[in-house]
Design brief:
With 501 residues, the protein is α/β, with parallel strands linked by helices. The protein has 3 domains: 234 residues, ATPase, nucleotide binding domain (Nucleotidyltransferase, domain 5, 2-Layer Sandwich), CATH 3.30.420.40; 156 residues, ATPase, nucleotide binding domain (Nucleotidyltransferase, domain 5, 2-Layer Sandwich), CATH 3.30.420.40; 92 residues, ATPase, nucleotide binding domain (Nucleotidyltransferase, domain 5, 2-Layer Sandwich). It contains 19 helices and 21 strands. The strands form 6 sheets. Strands 17-18-16-15-19-20-21 form a 7-stranded mixed beta sheet, with helices on both faces. The protein has a 6-stranded mixed beta sheet with strand order 3-2-1-6-14-13, with helices on both faces. Helix 2 packs across helix 4, helix 10 packs across helix 17 and helix 15 crosses helix 16. The chain is globular and about 65 Å long.
């Protein structure tokens, strides 16, 4: 049980990811933060026919259980609650505030047609120069346009549009707003106007009347709703805070970015590779390289590239488990570390890896089509994936240096993927850049410390990063150069750049 320290402050963070949801209690005392996971539940999408949905009512039920449990552990001494989730997905509400259908999963196939149809009405160049957001078929813009194409009755009946964290904030507080960092993932937020791009949406005949006010990270939305406080036996004075509601924005808020020579990789199901900038970088070259400008904290933007990350290993593991091969992630990493090097490479971002029925078979087909050797066992398969990811990180970092004029000297790998020591070392070796791994719980730490900022207990972003540095141990990986890496990188680029944006 989490013991409340003398003079400490307690915050509850909900970190909702594509595989699981978690509740974590953060204790802030004497310029240090301690975080403990108190509740976890699977977040499993539901397939109905050809569609994929989020089971949001189950997620909400689990969140209520977690909040009640956390409040009882803290004996009522809870300052605030904050939620972060994945980006791009949304819910539509009617005029009574009720859900109009289950929110779709970003891997739902409904955007396959919509993605190309949008460009028949508005060019890629115009969309990018309006929004600065990279082109992914899962983006909210194409999800909404699929409703236009299908003449959805739900779209016409909608009174309010809320991104996923905004939905849970509404259920917690009764306040319907959109938080900035998550709003930018839609690809219809205009950073030059600092608001929704109404003109872009109107060109696509997407309604705009239901768009909510946008609030900044670190905004106190209000108190927990009275009925919910009574139901869960939580003090009605507990604040509901919008931290940085996009999980990567919360993670980067806690990253050790010391100066312009620092980059980050938020490593999980997705790998977000980027730097922090004062204003969006929107140019023809950043469009060509398909870079994105997502909202950060304290007026910053995250200039980055999304790379499909540990999703590839997760899906392979799922396939092997279904065959009775029960490998842990640590066991797979160990097998990969002992496997042959540079067997073959994949482009992690090839569209076929977005939502395949069988990831192992899909990778094998890719290797066959590109005339490469196939891995002989599970260890070699994981090695192919990890080496491909590390080389993709190098390619993205090289392009960041080209686009920003910066010299990257250190990379902070944060999030659950920072536990993978082999990928960390391969990243250092393949990029020639020192890697600092941790904290693993960067997302929840950033969430909690932005709550502390919103409620007046932390004064600045500099203070947040100082607290993080003062609270955790970090592992460093120094690059070990081998001549064979350059030949392998040349092979990787010849394969990856055929499908890379």
């Amino acid at each position: 049980m989490f013991l409340r320290l003398m003079g400490s402050l307690a915050f509850l963070a909900f970190d909702l990811g594509a595989e699981s949801g978690r509740a974590l209690i953060g204790m802030l005392a004497e310029n240090k933060i301690k975080v403990e996971e108190v509740y976890r539940f699977p977040n499993v999408p539901v397939k109905i026919g050809g569609s994929i949905f989020w089971d949001v009512l189950r997620i909400w039920s689990e969140m209520k259980n977690a909040a009640s449990l956390s409040a009882s552990k803290l004996d009522g001494n809870l300052e605030s609650i904050g939620v972060d989730t994945w980006g791009v997905d949304f819910a539509l509400l009617d005029s009574s505030g009720e859900l109009l259908g289950n929110p779709h999963h970003y891997r739902d196939p409904r955007t396959e047609r919509a993605f190309e149809e949008v460009f028949k009405r508005v060019s890629r160049e115009e969309i990018y120069f309006r929004t600065g957001i990279q082109f992914l078929r899962l983006n909210t813009l194409y999800q909404l346009y699929s409703l236009v194409l299908n003449r959805s009755s739900i779209l016409n009946a909608a009174s309010k549009f809320l991104m996923m964290p905004d939905l849970f904030n509404y259920w917690l507080s009764g306040v319907k707003v959109s938080e900035f960092s998550d709003a930018t993932t839609t690809q219809f937020f205009n950073p030059s106007k600092n608001n929704w791009d109404y003109e872009l949406l109107e060109k696509l005949e997407i309604p705009t009347h239901f768009l909510p006010e946008i609030v900044r990270p670190g905004t106190v939305l209000g108190r927990i709703s009275a009925s919910l406080a009574e139901e869960l036996k939580i003090d009605s004075k507990v604040s509901i805070v919008a931290p940085a509601c996009h999980d990567t924005a919360s993670a980067v808020a806690a990253a050790l970015l010391e100066d312009e020579g620092s980059a980050y990789i938020s490593s999980g199901t997705w790998s977000l590779v980027g730097v922090e900038v004062d204003r969006p970088i929107i140019s023809r070259k950043s469009l060509e390289y398909n870079f994105t400008n997502e909202g950060g904290v304290f007026g910053k933007f995250r200039f980055l590239r999304n790379v499909q990350g540990m999703w590839l290993v997760q899906e392979c593991r799922r396939n092997w488990v279904s065959q009775g091969k029960e490998y842990s992630y640590d066991e797979l990493t160990s097998l990969a570390s002992k496997s042959r090097r540079f067997i073959a490479f994949i482009d992690p971002d090839d569209g076929r890896f977005m939502a395949p029925t069988n990831m192992v078979e899909e990778i094998m087909r890719y290797l066959e089509e590109t005339n490469q050797e196939k891995p002989r066992n599970e260890g070699e398969m994981v090695r192919v994936i990890l080496e491909s990811l590390a080389f993709k990180y190098r390619l993205v970092l090289e392009r960041i240096m080209e686009l920003t004029g910066r010299k990257i000297k250190r990379v902070n790998i944060i999030g659950g993927g920072s536990r993978n020591w082999l990928l960390n070392q391969l990243t250092a070796d393949f990029t020639g850049i020192r890697v600092i791994a941790g904290p693993v719980e960067a997302t929840s730490i950033g969430n909690i410390l932005m709550q502390a900022y919103a409620t007046g207990f932390v004064k600045s972003h500099k203070d947040i990063r100082w607290i993080v540095r003062n609270s955790f141990d970090f592992r460093e990986f120094e690059p070990e150069h081998e001549d064979s890496v350059e030949d392998a990188y040349t092979r990787f680029r010849s394969i990856a750049e055929k499908s890379d944006g």
